[in-house]
Amino acid sequence: MNQEPINKETREFQAETKQLLDLMIHSIYTNREIFLRELISNASDAIDKIRFESLTNQDLLEGDSDYEILINPDEATNTLTISDNGIGMTYDEVIENIGTIAKSGTKSFLEKLKEKETSTDKELIGQFGVGFYSAFMVSEKVTIITRAPGQAKGVKWQSGGDGTYTIEEIDKEKRGTTIIITLNEEFRSAERSSENFLNRHTIEDLIKKYSDYIRYPIKMSFIKEEKQRDDEGKIIEDSPVTQTVEVRTLNSMTPLWTRSKNEITAEEYNLFYKNLFHDWEEPLELIHSKAEGTVEYTSLLFIPSRAPYDFYSQKSTSGIRLYSKQIFIMDNCQDLLPEYLRFVRGLVDSPDFSLNISRELLQHSKQLKLIGKNLEKSVLKTLENILKKDRAKYEKFWKEFGRAIKIGAYTDFQSRDKLKDLLLFSSSHATEGLTTLEDYTTRMPENQKVIYYATGKDRASVERLPQMELLQEKGIEVLYLFDQVDEFTIDALQEYKEKNFQSISRGDLNLDDIDSPEAKKNTEAILKENETLITAIKEQLKGKIADVKISNRLKSSAVCLVSDDNGISLSMEQILSEMNNTMYKANRILEINPNHDVFTALKNLHETQPASESFKDYCDLLYVQALLIEGLLPEDPISFANKVASLMASKGK
Ligand code: ADP
Ligand code: MG
User: Fold this and answer.
1) What pLDDT digit, counting tens, does each position of 55-109 carry?
2) Per the CB 3.0–4.6 Å rule, which of 38, 288, 466, 643 could disulfide with 131?
3) Calpha distance 331→70 (Å, rounded)
4) Which of 314, 334, 288, 303 is nearest to 400 (CA)?
5) 383: which residues sit within 8 A by CB, 6+ positions away?
6) Distance CA 49, CA 30 (A)
7) What does the pLDDT look like over 127-166, one tens digit per residue?
């Protein structure tokens, strides 16, 4: 065998990787023992991969299908070695997978960490899948020796975590990967045995704790010291001590989900979840079920406590793993749960899946659809129960994933009905916490015809809306929609328990007393009386507004901007324009309060100088006021400022 190194080269880590390594080494994670779990999980993933690939290409196995992971602590060299006979890596793959951080999440991860500079945020690591680098938390040097099946040469990679690594071709007989970590001084001292990673019992405990369910044997050799025994098996006291090496499998290899529910402790579930889904926090809820009948499967689903950092910012994938008779088939199975439940993590194990099913075939699998339907039902049922029994817990869930549910109700036509009772909103009548639609309708007086809502950026700005004043005075409950998607959801629902939703900024308010025939008559009378004025205002604001109306919803404010019942609302228009969609415009209606002094001033001005610049300016100012109240900028802020300035100056004259 040729032992000479070929092509040894020193390379620099990518800048982000360097930063990450720095963070690792300077301990952002206090719980350093997890490095072992990470390396074992990589080994197990690598074996999963060769096992899967070999289904279609036997040759890859090179005759070796006794899958195993070996751990070997060696005090003489201060090293801990973890070997697997998995898929290994080619030269390029080592550079790609280990030397660079390809994952787009890593950049954001670093940014996030910097944001919170001081807090050593532990939970972050797991979420970003930076598993391999955790080895540098405990070691001064890490060596990888690996060979992919079918490759003539293996690869040796080595780094002290200092910004560079070396890589070269070497010979390696067995397929797979060996990771040799040279432990830091502090992790090989015997005093703190729980952090002495050369101690076999420490290792054994860690494997039990984190990696028990790994489906391949994790083996370690123990040295047995024994005196000789006689023919009956009794120890011969004065015989010399002999040492024998005994290889033991450290993990039980029983996947947790195959065990019966009442034998599994909460702690076991939690650890399993954290290990499998790289979460630092315990799940909010778990659902473990077995089904027999038309389809047979076991499922173990978790609702996480926290949304991943990128949950809403990019199209994050679903977190369901598929197994068939305990053999891993695929990660992130998209077709099992509807999009709006993509926050659910977990797994489904069904003998009905064939092992080498492709993603394409899976899409059309009847069993998968059936299982998916059942899972969706049980997740929704679980959420419903939490909502009923533990409101605080549900609100915690809602804070993290509520938006996904709302988007679901808005985009997923078929699910709308199932989701409406899971929705929560802020409300004028729920000053702390949130309200369900059911709560709202229960509180609603019998003669109230619609469910009112208002949009705005927060409670204070909604409550300052001129349109709110009247409703507040009457004690009518208004849902407050702060999230952009809220109004789209409400719009999609259309009604709840046969009560329509009514924006306080659109159309008629549907209030008996103000919309009574009498009140309407009164408004019409005012309108008639001021017809020329109204027409003149309309004329001046032509192109900006669709109509001018006499308002019956304003109390102390002079003016407000509403949109009519057709088309989109003003707030939707804003959201769409932020998304660069300027196709849709709301029909703006300027409503003027006939009881306000401004109205009288306008009226007088119109009577005395109908064609004056002052009158035109007043109209413009009125319109801009209405815009500003809605949080909209005037088209020409400078002209607005100038007009206000000259108005102020004229007052002071
Ligand atoms: P993740 O496991 O989340 O992908 P890691 O940092 O743990 O992230 O590993 C990075 C990559 O390095 C893996 O995706 C895999 O491609 C490769 N890798 C790590 N360990 C092994 C191994 N034992 N065998 C083969 N490939 C490995
Ligand atoms: Mg990993």
Assistant:
1) 889 999 999 999 999 999 999 999 999 999 999 999 999 998 886 665 545 565 6
2) 38
3) 25
4) 303
5) 303, 394, 397, 422
6) 31
7) 455 578 889 989 999 999 999 999 999 999 999 988 899 9
Give the chain's mean pLDDT: 87
For β-strands 478-481 and 450-455, DSSP reports them as parallel
CB-ligand 1 contact for 87 (6 Å cutoff): yes
pLDDT (tens digit, 9 = 90+) per residue, 434-477? 999 999 999 999 889 899 999 998 999 999 998 898 899 889 99
**Contact criterion met (CB below 8 Å) for 236 and 229:** yes
d(CA 230, CA 237): 10
Give the helix, strand, coil percentages of the chain, each rounded to 5: 40, 20, 35
Any alpha helices (H) in 301-365, and if so which ranges? 359-363
- The CATH class of the 424-503 domain is alpha beta
Nearest CA to ligand 1 atom 13: 97
Nearest ligand, CA 103 = 1
Q: What are phi and psi of 109, to 5 degrees?
A: -60, -45
Closest atom of ligand 1 to 176 CA is: 24
Domain 258-395 has CATH 3.30.230.80: yes
Q: How many angstroms separate the alpha carbon of residue 313 from the centre of ligand 2? A: 23
Mutate to test the pocket of ligand 1, among 42, 93, 133 (most ligand atoms within 8 A of CB): 42
For residue 409, give Cα distances in angstroms to 131, 358, 486, 562, 598: 36, 30, 10, 26, 43
Distance in angstroms (rounded) separating the CA atoms of residues 111 and 292: 47
DSSP bridge pairs for 142: 159, 181
Beta-carbon contacts of 603 under 8 Å, excluding residues fewer than 6 positions away, are 530, 533
**How far from each other are the two terminal CA atoms of the chain, in whole angstroms?**
102
Report the alpha-carbon distance of residue 108 to residue 8 in Å, rounded: 33
Global pTM value: 0.70
> Class of the 9-220 domain?
alpha beta
Handedness of CA 203, 205, 207, 210 (dihedral sign): negative
Q: Which residues contact 86 (CB under 8 A, 6 or more apart)?
A: 43, 44, 45, 46, 47, 48, 49, 50, 67, 175, 176, 177
H or E element that contains 103: none
Instruction: Report the 10 Å Cβ neighbour count for 408.
Output: 22
Measuring from atom 15 of ligand 1, which residue has the nearest CA?
97
State both tokens at 549.
């109306």
| Residue 622: other Cβ atoms inside 10 A | 21
Distance CA 618, CA 559 (A): 12
Which phi and psi angles does 283 have, rounded to 5°?
Answer: -70, 155
| CATH number of this structure's domain 517-652 | 1.20.120.790
- 165 burial (CB, 10 Å; 0-12 / 13-18 / 19+) is buried
